[in-house]
Amino acid sequence: MDYQAVLEEVAAHARPYVGQGQVADYIPALERVSADRFGIAVADIHGAVYGVGDWEVPFSVQSISKAFSLALVMAQSHGSQGGDGNHGAPGGNRAPGGPGTDDIWKRVGREPSGTPFNSLVQLEAENGIPRNPFINAGALVVTDRLQTLTGDASTSMLHFLREESGNPDLAFDQAVADSEAEHGDRNAALAHFMASFGNLENPVPSVIQHYFWQCSIEMSCRDLAVAGGFLARHGLRADGSRLLDAREAKRINAVMLTCGTYDAAGEFAYRVGLPAKSGVGGGIIAVIPGRCTLCVWSPGLDARGNSVAGAAALDHFTTLTGWSVF
Amino acid sequence: MDYQAVLEEVAAHARPYVGQGQVADYIPALERVSADRFGIAVADIHGAVYGVGDWEVPFSVQSISKAFSLALVMAQSHGSQGGDGNHGAPGGNRAPGGPGTDDIWKRVGREPSGTPFNSLVQLEAENGIPRNPFINAGALVVTDRLQTLTGDASTSMLHFLREESGNPDLAFDQAVADSEAEHGDRNAALAHFMASFGNLENPVPSVIQHYFWQCSIEMSCRDLAVAGGFLARHGLRADGSRLLDAREAKRINAVMLTCGTYDAAGEFAYRVGLPAKSGVGGGIIAVIPGRCTLCVWSPGLDARGNSVAGAAALDHFTTLTGWSVF
Amino acid sequence: MDYQAVLEEVAAHARPYVGQGQVADYIPALERVSADRFGIAVADIHGAVYGVGDWEVPFSVQSISKAFSLALVMAQSHGSQGGDGNHGAPGGNRAPGGPGTDDIWKRVGREPSGTPFNSLVQLEAENGIPRNPFINAGALVVTDRLQTLTGDASTSMLHFLREESGNPDLAFDQAVADSEAEHGDRNAALAHFMASFGNLENPVPSVIQHYFWQCSIEMSCRDLAVAGGFLARHGLRADGSRLLDAREAKRINAVMLTCGTYDAAGEFAYRVGLPAKSGVGGGIIAVIPGRCTLCVWSPGLDARGNSVAGAAALDHFTTLTGWSVF
Amino acid sequence: MDYQAVLEEVAAHARPYVGQGQVADYIPALERVSADRFGIAVADIHGAVYGVGDWEVPFSVQSISKAFSLALVMAQSHGSQGGDGNHGAPGGNRAPGGPGTDDIWKRVGREPSGTPFNSLVQLEAENGIPRNPFINAGALVVTDRLQTLTGDASTSMLHFLREESGNPDLAFDQAVADSEAEHGDRNAALAHFMASFGNLENPVPSVIQHYFWQCSIEMSCRDLAVAGGFLARHGLRADGSRLLDAREAKRINAVMLTCGTYDAAGEFAYRVGLPAKSGVGGGIIAVIPGRCTLCVWSPGLDARGNSVAGAAALDHFTTLTGWSVF
Predict the structure, then answer these.
(1) CA distance, residue D24 to nearest chain A CA (Å)
(2) Is B188 on the interface with C (CB under 8 A)?
(3) Domain total for chain B?
(4) Burial per residue of B255-282, b for 16 or more beta-carbon CB atoms within 10 angstroms, e otherwise
(5) Helix or strand or coil: residue C54?
(6) Residue B150 structural domain
(7) Is B186 on the interface with C (CB under 8 A)?
């Protein structure tokens, strides 16, 4: 596969979509980004990286960080079988998890959330257990868990991303984090609501702060495609060490496919057919297991918060390559 | 791959789960099935079929029929790009569909439905447009469309299944269809409700009747694995002719993965990682694109309506083979 | 109180509102009514009747019939204490009801329904028990019960209304009833849905038919004010015989106040402060216990289905007289 | 009316219910109250007060404070017509309110809230506008407004209650207020959620604090019956000065009847037929316009948060006296 040629054709195809949609404007720090940016990068499983357009320009990762925080919590919990206990071995005599067993899946579900309208309905009807780790409520629970496991959820993620991307300059964008906090009443409502059900381990202000910092990290398409390589390598990190076992990596991909693009996950699976996680900064990371990790960026968002040109680019990439999981 | 050996190991693994769960009891005709049945079959893309246990015993396909009715509607609508118009080409100057263009996707969505609790909520909030073609409301719309396209939705499906499975003895189970109709107030409510939004083309009683007949068809694991082969063959039928183009086949698989196992689709993707469609008769059909189609059957259902032993079997199949879409 | 003078002042006050709002147009038979009609009548508890404007012009009673069907079911059930058993005597040793005891309140609630949006949600979440007897679902249950008690729900109501109003010419409007049936998918959905929970005693088509016939009865403001006199007379009929005991009459008034004007009951209580039942034909019946029953009619409806000029007239009536229940 | 004799008979009737239900236990400070307390007091409109049982024992007013905060906001807003503008004069040329006009009714509704389940659903579906001023979300908005109007919402209410009850010893219960704050995640969630819709004027922590302090005020049945006298006197205060005009007092009574007893307002109206406001401290205040104000107290609550013995007492009071608003 000549990745560079494919990316160039994809970029040409996506060009007319660049500038379509709306740049996220709920905080001023995001609103300032120019709508006409477009970049795409591919990191294959052997470490080669290709890119076109603004693929080395940093942008705010926003919800893409949710895929990494989930991976870090799962990685911290080796020995756990991620809630499989729900299905139970017959007879129920399954041995309790050893040291490090984590039960994040008792505190957050794995099902798509339906509509945004439902987010609070479901929390209320389902006793403060968010539907999945990629809606805000679920990501707050994951961050809360990462905070407990590491003592500093946002810094531990930043360090991981620096190491994995090989870019030691990655940093929080303080202005974005502050701006999020200033407009953070809705996330505060979600966190307090879950706390009222006993589903947070750390104080609400601390959880929210780490959550906003994680979202504020700035990375380029290159950084994200490289840092997300472990999802295509069945859990192996860039240095060949194991972050997750193959089953765990597969499962994060499954959750990305069913829940990774907000309320459009079904649509995205139908159209693109790849596990993916999007952010309101305009980035989308996507995985072709066993082959490569992609990241595309263009700030204009559709009504459900996914990059318009980014989705068009990924759609065309799967058309050109014939690579989809289906 | 020695399919026969794999199936035997899978059956051994699933054995302790057989008899767990509840046999569907909402209609007497289903309730009579013995809980201790178990069968599994694999049809590879070259036409070879393997099976163990009760793999040649017919059972009520129930909701598995929904995957076939969707495929038949899509097949009748060649030339259509399945609602892609929603994403629009830039400038919006996309040519209108040619003859045969179908707009089933304007009448039914492609997103997971969230909880069963939501089914009527969402119909109400979303103007009578069901979330996806695999919840009952969505399947009624697809059946309604198939009725319009073919003049006889249930017979056209029966003929297709006979041809595709190579089993000319396939038939409706009149007792099951009658029993469904007798206990069909909820489906009647859904159909009238959608009719009140103008989302049915045919009279409610006719749509419901064809829907019940489709569900009542009796097939074995062998029949279903063979008949579903086109989903693994990127749209090619058993005789090599094309039912769907590759993109359409991929898309049905995507909808099966995100919506095919009732409210447990996220869980099923997480655990098994295959496109699948289950039925309350205890059958599950699953697809490994480019390789094979499986069908497993065991009547005991979990709380969400999926076969307990069937899910365990598919889980173990992917573990043994390492084949998952992720 | 010089009722005639008050009514004239009220009519003058309401004049500018006549023609505002929308005439119900969901069925052609209602749509044809001219928007500029206005009538109001008062029947005092001694039998005197006063009216102005189009107070003797018949119109479609529609949902006003719900107050009468509830009264007839309660009247048929003397000896019952209408679900008071829920509160229980201490010790729970309350004697079972005697002959005629009815338990309509086990099948329908007495709480306001919140938003129209909620109607199906609540039926689903609350096992097919409608919130109150004045939403459509609840009225279908009451009609179903009246059908069981009388053998002919709609005719028994027509006979009662003829006797009580002293107008032997009252009749069903066949065109309206047929038109409702033709556009009756939503009510059919509600009825089938309740049937699926076992909350209907009679076949769905029969219940719906009687319900539509009750709604189609044509009466004037005069007819309705006189026929509703028993609600102001603490349960005594026009001929002095007892239909309901004082407690029952009080309770129907309570349900009218909290649930009688669709989703605007709180607003209506706030503004007018009288028990009332409205219909989409533009009529509103209101009760001043111990004094009189009013009926006002003007076809233009507000967004919640209540007559705009009718509500303004009742508001002004309470302002002029100082009569409100609060 | 020999109030003392009536109250004694009422107390005897209610006796078997005392101790039934559950004492509120969501905060320790309330949990400590003995379940076997019972008191009832009546204050007639001429200033006479009667009582039996524990009628002079202070208890935590809790949500009963919501009726007073609403009254204080309306009193601060003379000249306002309480949202009547929604109904509009024909032509819409109604003059803007004069000085003091308040628009609390643009920020909170007047409709019953349906189920508790719905509280957050409705806030979400209705853009952060609570259904009515007596659910927690609505009371937070009213407190927020009172804070803006007075600069100190809780102290201004305390002063008013001291003056109106004639009891200068009324005070906040600091332990209760602190305990509420410690377990206040759900109210914090509601407040942040409304803030995210722009429906709070003051900082969330300040609004919550004043809200908890208002709820923590300790008063006896005597204090509350006397302090609530203005609702029976059509708005006149104990000293004969005017707090509210007659229309405003009527309207508070209407909201109490339709929304004052949590999700049981319809049931309470059906059974008792009086405007009332209950609190989880076990108190209920009720109004017979033009006659008297009652307060009853017994800590055992039914499933919806209303005093079991208190409701039984009010029910019997209306039966004995024949006084209901219907």
Answers:
(1) 17
(2) yes
(3) 1
(4) bbbbbbbbbbbbbbbbbbbbbbbbbbbb
(5) coil
(6) 3-84+103-321
(7) yes
Tell whether A25 is covered by a domain: yes
Tell whether C78 lies on the interface with D, counting CB pairs under 8 A.
no
Distance from A303 to chain B by nearest Cα, in Å?
A: 11
Among chain B residues, the shortest Cα distance to C121 is held by B121
C-alpha dist (Å) from residue A71 to A227, C15, C62, C315: 12, 69, 60, 63
Asked if C242 contacts C235 with a C-beta cutoff of 8 angstroms, the reply is yes
Q: Which residues of A touch B300 (CB under 8 A)?
A: none
C184 touches chain D (CB under 8 A): no
Residue B154 resides in a domain: yes
The overall longest dimension of chain C from CA atoms, in Å, is: 59
Rounded Cα distance between A125 and A121, Å, is 6
% of chain A residues with pLDDT over 70 = 90
Between CA A93 and CA B143 the distance in angstroms is: 45
For chain C, list the strands marked E by DSSP: 39-44, 49-53, 59-60, 218-219, 276-278, 283-288, 292-297
Is residue D117 within 8 A of residue D304, CB to CB? The reply is no
| CATH number (domain holding residue D276) | 3.40.710.10
Strands (E), C18-118: 39-44, 49-53, 59-60
Contact D266, C251 (CB under 8 A): no
Which stretches in chain B have pLDDT values below 50? 79-101, 117
pTM, rounded to two decimals = 0.89
Task: Supply D206's token pair.
Answer: 């300040």
Given the structure tokens 């078997």, which residue do they identify? D16
C59 is a domain residue: yes
CA distances from C318 to A291, D20, D246 (A): 77, 41, 12
Report the b/e string of A118-129 with b at 16+ CB within 10 A.
Answer: bbbbbbbbeebb
ipTM: 0.89
Collapsed DSSP state (helix, strand, coil) of residue D187: helix
Tell me if B224 sits within 8 A of B295, measured CB to CB. yes
| Angle, in degrees to the nearest 10, between helices C153-165 and C136-150 | 90
Look at residue A279 and tell me if it is in a domain. yes
Look at residue A288 and give its three-state secondary structure: strand
Give the tens place of pLDDT for each residue, A178-217.
999 999 999 999 999 999 999 999 999 999 999 999 999 9
